[in-house]
Amino acid sequence: MLWPAAAKAVMKTGPDREIVSVYPYRSACPSSVWRSLITDAIDNLTFAGYTNYFLWLEQPNLAAALRRKARTGAAVRFLLGDPESDVTLRRESVERTALTVSTRIRITLEHLHQLGAIEGLEARYSAHEGHISLSVFRFDDQMLVTPHLSNLVGHDSPMLHLRRLQDDGMFDRFAQHVETLWDAGRPVPAAPPHAGAQDPR
Questions:
Q1: pLDDT tens digits, residue range 34-80?
Q2: Residues 103, 126: Cα–Cα separation, whole Å
Q3: Pairwise CA distance, residues 140 & 45, whole Å
């Protein structure tokens, strides 16, 4: 009652005030937004996409940026799907793309392996089926969230850009989702399988 409808339309006052931007497709988000979030993050960079494959294509010299962040004290975390899990195989049968889910994961594993052992950088396999339907990328108090639609690949699914402004808001809900997956995950082996390796099954 304190705010006229016109003022509410201009100034967000509810839970949706944490929404910075909405993109109908992840690919519609400018790469400069990703670069700015990565560059400005100080304490926490968490990449909880199921494959995280696109990052290495769209962000020039990402490895160097991540290495700098980790060496200056940031926690850099990658949460990935297991390329040999049943969840991954089922998703491949849904997407039916030439560049399979397991191959995309293995490409990320190769990039991480090339980074070497760096204090502050850690990767885990997710053990929960809920991971494959929701990608969350956190950069301190901002994050990009992609809910995956039906049989669409990540870049064709919508994305939200959030900024934390309240307790138990949208940001915190998605952050807790990631922490639950992370806590239940298992460390990625030091030597990942080759990107072109075939599943023996």
A1: 999 999 999 999 999 999 999 999 999 999 999 999 999 999 999 99
A2: 16
A3: 7
What CA–CA distance (Å, rounded) separates 43 from 49? 19
CB 139 within 8 A of CB 40: yes
Helix, strand or coil for residue 166? coil
Task: Report residue 201 CA to chain centroid gap.
Answer: 28
The two tokens of residue 52 are 């995280």
CB atoms within 10 A of CB 34: 18
What is the Cα 148 distance to its own chain's centre? 12
Q: Look at the block and give the residue holding tokens 């040999």.
A: 84
- Are the CB atoms for 121 and 115 separated by under 8 Å? yes
* Interatomic CA distance for residues 89 and 51, integer angstroms: 13
Q: What is the pLDDT of residues 84-140, one digit of tens each?
A: 999 988 888 887 878 898 999 999 999 999 988 899 999 999 988 889 889 999 999
Q: Full-prediction pTM beyond 0.90?
A: no
Report which of 56, 52, 49 is spatially closest to residue 133, judged by C-alpha positions. 49
